[in-house]
What we know:
The complex is a heterodimer. Among the domains of chain A are: 2-149, 2-Layer Sandwich (Alpha-Beta Plaits); 166-262, Dna Ligase, domain 1, CATH 3.30.1490.100; 383-452, no CATH class. Chain A contains 13 helices and 17 strands. Chain A is elongated, with a radius of gyration of 37 Å. By secondary structure, chain A is α+β, with helices and mostly antiparallel strands. Chain B has a single domain (20-232), classed as P-loop containing nucleotide triphosphate hydrolases (Rossmann fold). Chain B has five helices and eleven strands, in the order E-H-E-E-H-E-H-E-H-E-H-E-E-E-E-E. Chain B is globular, with a radius of gyration of 20 Å. The interface between A and B is large, with 75 and 81 residues.
Amino acid sequence: MPRFIAIFSSNPFHTLAVAQILSPRIGICPPDGLLLEVAARYERQTLKRLLQETETTGQLKTGIASTRIAALFAAKTRSGTVVPPGKERDFLASLPVSLLSLITQEADRKLLLTFFQWGVRTLGELAALPEGELAARLGQAGLRLQKMARGEDTELFQSYVEGPHFEESQELEWTLDSLEPLTFILGGILERLCARLQSYGLAADSLQLVLRLDNHTSYKRTLRLAFPMRDPKVLLSLLRLDLQSHPPNSAIVGVLLQAIPAPPRVIQHSLLEPPVPSPEKLSRTLGRLSVLLGENNIGSPILLDTHRPDAIAVEPWPLEQKSQRASRVEQKSNRAKEPTRFARRTKEQKNRRAEEQREDIRNSAFDIRRSTFDIRHSPRLSLRRFRPPKATSIRSDQIVVCAGPWRSSGDWWTGTSHKWSRDEWDVEVLDGSICRIYWDHRKKTWFLEGIYD
Amino acid sequence: MVVCASSLKGAALRKRAHTEFLPTGIQPLDLLLSGGIPRGQMTEIVGSLSSGKTSLLLSILAQATTRGELVAYIDSFASLDPAFARKAGVDLQRLLWIRGETSLLPEKALKAADILARAGGFGVVALDLETQARKANRGVVRKISFHCWFRLKRAVEGTATILLVLGNEAAAGSAASVVISLRRRKAQWCSTTQNSPIRHACLRHACLLCGICSEVELLRGKNPNHATLYCHF
């Protein structure tokens, strides 16, 4: 008949490592409890060995019994107790009911208060209650607590199984100083890793590459993936692109590749929306573009929540795009937060457009002979910016028409270099181009911000 | 001449795929283009500064993102203003912005366009080669060889991707199936002190820039009837 050794330790990780040597069947009792299942004749020998191995790492509370719940109670209340087989109920009878809250989360405050109101003070009194009456009043939770009070286990023993390590390494017979042969070796390693991941039904959340160099140092790269994947070709191309951007500074003598596992991603495509490329393909494309142009020059622009001119940031492009409906809703709510100046212009423009359209309908100028027709349409005018703005010295005789100024300033309260104060003008110059210029009050200079196009 | 029927067995007749179009957002222009910008082909939008070509480009990108498509914008001089793009209706989360720090060499820009065109999945790949504003870079676009343009054209053939090239002058030659030329006609300035818009620039100091009136001409396309129309941006 098996026996259980319950252990509460101040260093549970070390205790777990030692316990794994002593017994193949180990249970975890969060937060810091362990259960070892051993044969009855080896219980004392195992406990002695465990105490010897862990004596330097901290204090241990132990208890031995034929059931798990009794062993846990023994370890919690009187460390070192060995409950004889069949005497679990007697051992637990005198213990207070409140101890149930230390062992199980089912003994919540409400249940314990109910027991107190009934006059049940010990586990023995709880065990003696009639089962039918207890179930009628407290349900299955009450019955389970009663079983625990009698020293009976309510669940099957679940043995702790350590998660698999997805790690492959290869020592090289000669040094590698170029990327091509390394890619060939990484390809083989990734094939084996991905096959193992697939057999466990997992995918790689990130990859950690450690290259041993011939100057006796290590070169580490961590490739964080946008989502868990296990396609060896995609992972190889991403690794290769990463090493192209960040090559090691010496020849390579050994390779170690570790995959951090995660559940694979499950996606369902919509029948009503246009097909988008797979994120794996997109990540490869972005990787190639990063190598060509640099990581910081590729992404999705976002507008910062400030009135500072040209306040933008570039964030990594989301590989998993939101649905069309969700992005439409977001666009609508973002438009409501636009700066006041543009909203005012838009309203004025709208009123004028409506008036002009009515005038055009009255005076329609459709000339069939020349095949030209004048249609009023207003997509928004856009500005091509200069980054950074160019200092300019436009003379007044070069300007045909001007509109302005619009004064704006801000961030003077932050004390940073972002503060600005300027007068903006829209001007049409002699060559016909329409520019936005501004007078910077701080630098006392005219700048060309952009050209309308 | 008698043609043996058996000799025709090996000749697989391929039916030309029906061309789809993406509307530009400007209805008269769509009528002029017989539906919009053709997919799987290269389209050039050319014009001088302040002719409205960037506004037209953003309108096309807005149409694509509204339909849930992904778009890429290769910005040689980092001149895109995301605020104006959003106002034009572009969904910024579906816009991949590729820019050079100070400037992007045309070779790198073309290579990026090639990567994106071959990757597939993008509704529009826009290549901005506007150099007139940058005096130092004028003429570099003319040095791009024709085989580069044809390579780009072949990259999008048979796909749903539109390759848009923005520039001051037509550079792709016959590789571009459609060439739209914009010419600035006049700017529209408004004064809030008067009720009617100013039609002639007789007043030097106006209050508001209302827009630009541009003349749009189809230089090459499905039905190049040389019709022109006026667009207001």
